[in-house]
Write a structure and sequence with these properties.
four-stranded antiparallel beta sheet; 16% strand
Amino acid sequence: MQLVKRIIIGVFVLLAIAVLTAYATGNAYLIQGIRKTYLVGEKSPDIDDMNLFDVRKIAHGEPRLPIKYSAIQSVAFPEQYAAWNDSLGTTAYLVFWRDSLFFERYWEGDSATATNSFSMAKSVTALLIGCALDEGLIQSVDQPVSDFLPEYATGLNASLTIRHLLTMTSGIPFGESYSSPFGYMARAYFGDDLKKETTAYPVERNPNTLWAYEGGNTVLLGLIIQKATGKSPSAYLEEKLWMRMGTEQDAHWNLDHADGIEKTFSGLYATARDFSKIGSLVMHGGILEGDTLLSPEFIGQALTPVMVPDEKGESCDWYGWQWWLGNHEGKSMYMCRGMRGQYVICIPELELMVVRIGHKQSKERIRHIPADLYTYIDIAIAMLEQQGIRAL
């Protein structure tokens, strides 16, 4: 019995030492990371982690653009994909065709269940930059970042523009490792001073010379939105888009601490139906029922390939302004994408949009896009063909 007590006391002493060391070395975020992942049975953040963080509410408006339902009621999820889909932990799968909800199924929760979008939030952040441009609160995407963030006023930092942040060509080496507990992403997601963590990184190479996907760029865009508009990204999203798109539920944005700043690179929580509103807005060029929420010119530029080389020397034709680009069977597509396979996939030529929410995604990449994303498109097309509709 004495031995057991000694072991327990020893464990507590070691834990106390670990906690004190974390705080003393400026790594207190590690304690929060462990508490919000391993202690809830996860190895990394998952889609249902909203209750673990401080958040800011984004109120929905009147449903002036309610979801239109397809007249077809007998659509079934293709049996040949069922086991594969289950293995990836899909929680929601929606198919929209010709602006109508053609198919909707939930494996967890229902149409009112909000989940983490992860990096789909980057695409929404870019749209808010567009709103600020439309209002004249930002002069142009070539405006210096230092006009909003004086931390970037000297040296190579002074060459940094909003365009470089939108295109992921800032030359700031934030790092995008999701496995390193000491990297920028861990500090950004679990830390409590996101601005300090992010602006500590300077520009280290000439902007627009290397494409590198790094969430710190989007955090800087969020800080610019707040400075330019005088409103938090959540409040600005609520005013300019969320209350005007016919959303059905309130959304929430993950903060670095109570009453803090939004983690604009991630952590926008909403329902699958309401995420579809973002895709619909972009597919309609920023105009819904004659109401211009966002200029078509901005949408067009946001969906234009960056064409700056990556570290392998390959010219980036798979990314625009915080939106991913690609093609399926020769048809152009663009998408919001988030960790663990959160997708809003738009294929305008087919008048098709697919929303998928879930716990896992494929590790395989095809032209920089997760392989499972293509399969979710194939499933949608298979369901259309069940009804005698030739989408391709």
